[in-house]
Amino acid sequence: MNSMHARWQYTFSEKQNRGQVLLMPSHQVQAGVVLVVSLIILLLLTLIGLSAMQSTALEEKMAGNFQDKNLAFQAAESALRVAEDSLKPPMVLPTFTNAGTGGFYTETPTISLADAAIMLDSFWLTYPVHPSSLTNLGNGIQPPIYFIQRLGVVCPLPCSTPQYFKITVRATGGRTSTVVILQAITYI
Q1: Rounded CA gap, 89 and 111, in Å?
Q2: CA 166-168-172 angle, 5° bins
Q3: Each residue of 9-67: pLDDT tens digit?
Q4: Which of 77, 84, 75, 83 is nearest to 178 (CA)?
Q5: Count of CB atoms situated within 10 Å of the CB of 95
């Protein structure tokens, strides 16, 4: 090794604490530091990789939930259209009762049809509702259910005053925990 290009560093040996000075080239002293720095960088890269994997898994779950909610919404929208069409002429209007026989309620039902009540699963399991005629919705989606409440003016058909109806539909997605409830007011 050329003496002009060699760098030397003075270090004291702890084993020989006698005031002796050892001469060691500086690259030998730095070799341990490179190992420590590279291990720290490897640890940081591992943490970044784990974080990216968790983020990807979360995004995949979010996309699946969005798709399931969209399927439930589409089923509810379809059932809402079927229910609206069942009220339009030449269809014969169903019999509306206070008790809601068959899912058809008058303007003064014996049960609460408030928004807070219909949000509960127990409402749809306990009170009369009408099953939708929609079938084969795919992805394990159950046919939606609905009820219709007559609002306002009652007159025999043909009627010069429009009759208003509130249609409330409940549909689920591929999982029964994904629920969409839609309401529409229509008139004939």
Answers
A1: 29
A2: 165
A3: 555 445 555 555 555 565 555 667 888 889 999 999 999 999 999 999 999 999 989 99
A4: 75
A5: 9
Q: Output the six-digit token pair for 32.
A: 């341990």
Determine the Cα–Cα distance for residues 150 and 99; give it in Å rounded to an integer: 12
Coil, strand, or helix at residue 14?
Answer: coil
User: Which residue type sits at 137?
Assistant: L
DSSP code of residue 68: H
Rounded Cα distance, 123 and 141, in Å:
20
Domain boundaries, the chain: 75-187
Interatomic CA distance for residues 11 and 18, integer angstroms: 13
Q: CA 118, CA 113: separation in Å to the nearest integer?
A: 6
Whether this prediction's pTM lies above 0.85 is answered by no
Tell me the two tokens of residue 113. 């049809």
94 cis-preceded (ω within 30 degrees of 0)? no
Confidence of residue 140 (pLDDT cuts 50, 70, 90): confident
Structure tokens at 51: 């974080």
